[in-house]
Amino acid sequence: MSVQARGRSTMALYSSSESIECHRVRFVLAEKGINVEIVDIDADPSAAEDLAELNPYNETPTLVDRDLLLYDAGVINDYLDERYPHPPLMPVDPVSRARLRLVHYRILRDWYPLAREIVSATPKKAEKPRKQLKESILAANELFKMGDFLLGDELSLVDCTLGPLFWRLPIYGIDLGKPGTAIQAYIQRLISRNSFKASLTMAERELILDIS
């Protein structure tokens, strides 16, 4: 699909300041050191109008790279990893890639919907998805003992999906406690990365005040 964002000649990401999906993309952009214009539709009414013209679903994230228009965080991140191969965010080995993709699929199918449900529900109705999400994360504890990052020692696209989710756990009212020691160590490794810090909007920084 070819399109030209009005008045923009460089790569631009139409983003929402508190969107977990947009955060996934900003993390990848920061990790790869890609020069991009972040267009905050929450702060710029004209940008919101542009987005409505560009994206048939009028949703963020939406990426414009010259005459290429992409939407959906997964599609965008796959493109970025292939377009800018260094550092690589998926292993070369097809078996390892398949394993990571399967875990990624389960995170997006199981954990992300529960997180959205917690945010959108009333406090009482949020109790069930909160319990389900916490239990499901803790059940995956062993996966976080296999290296510095998920399933190994190299940061991957899956970690770039988990980082924004785990950053928001306090907002979801989830404390992993002692059973989640390995996961909490993993979270600290993620959020201490300069790329993760750079990916945060001001609104996201305010979710957790201590990012030192």
Characteristics:
212 residues; alpha+beta; Glutaredoxin; Glutathione S-transferase Yfyf (Class Pi), Chain A, domain 2; 2 domains; 10 helices; 52% helix; globular; disordered N terminus
* Distance between the first and last residues' Cα: 42 Å
Count of helix runs: 10
Q: What would you call the quaternary organization?
A: single chain
CATH topology of the largest domain: Glutathione S-transferase Yfyf (Class Pi), Chain A, domain 2
Structural class from helices and strands?
alpha+beta
Major sheet details = 4 strands, mixed
Could you say how many structural domains there are in total?
Answer: 2
Percent range for helical residues? 40-55%
Order of helices and strands: EHEHEEHHHHHHHH
- Report the portion of residues in β strands: 5-15%
Which ranges are low-confidence, i.e. pLDDT below 50, for 5 or more consecutive residues? 1-5
Rg value: 17 Å
Q: Let me know the number of strands.
A: 4
Q: Average pLDDT value?
A: 93
CATH architecture of the largest domain: Up-down Bundle
Rough outline: globular
Determine and state the CATH class of the largest domain. Mainly Alpha
Major sheet: order of its strands? 2-1-3-4
